[in-house]
Amino acid sequence: EAQVTQNPRYLITVTGKKLTVTCSQNMNHEYMSWYRQDPGLGLRQIYYSMNVEVTDKGDVPEGYKVSRKEKRNFPLILESPSPNQTSLYFCASSLSSARGRSPLHFGNGTRLTVT
Amino acid sequence: GESVGLHLPTLSVQEGDNSIINCAYSNSASDYFIWYKQESGKGPQFIIDIRSNMDKRQGQRVTVLLNKTVKHLSLQIAATQPGDSAVYFCAENTGGFKTIFGAGTRLFVKA
Q1: What is the rounded distance in angstroms from the CA atom of residue B94 to the CA atom of residue B32?
Q2: Range of lowest pLDDT (A96-105, B9-18, B30-39, B48-57)
Q3: Is residue A80 over pLDDT 70?
Q4: Is A99 strand, coil or helix?
């Protein structure tokens, strides 16, 4: 089954404790992206990747890192999480990064709580 | 389930009726538009898309209409079913790597 898989689904952590949220897609998609979803603010892009070893900042990149060493994986790293990073996170992928002309496929989300 | 928006516009329809969800997009240079459906506890799911060289596109029970003059997009769902209850997002793309999402509309289907 074609899918985007995120892990974990739920994560509760404390301020400053490094964490990684994994994302993997099995559709051979070039483009991958991370979003956070907050009430009243909608979906905001954190980082995106057009292909292996090519990443760039989205609208809200502060406090996050990403890497794209393999086409299928795009982990999101929070080196020192803070409470304002409490949110619902989505990974997404699409077939082609060329001019963004294909729809995004989303994972089922990771609910992160930072205390 | 997950809360995706506490103060979203809400549309309530009777099962079997047609639903129309509207969206105003922001960028006149946007040339690709997508509708997504988000059910509680899940990620957004692609429903239908349309390019700016079209003004109407139909799928199974869904139709998207695009009015570029007034920068308006609508999603019509025929014979709405309880399984259609969800939050619906429109999204626009200007040809770069950025997709801009609308705030979303919550659809309630009354049995």
Answers
A1: 7
A2: A96-105
A3: yes
A4: helix
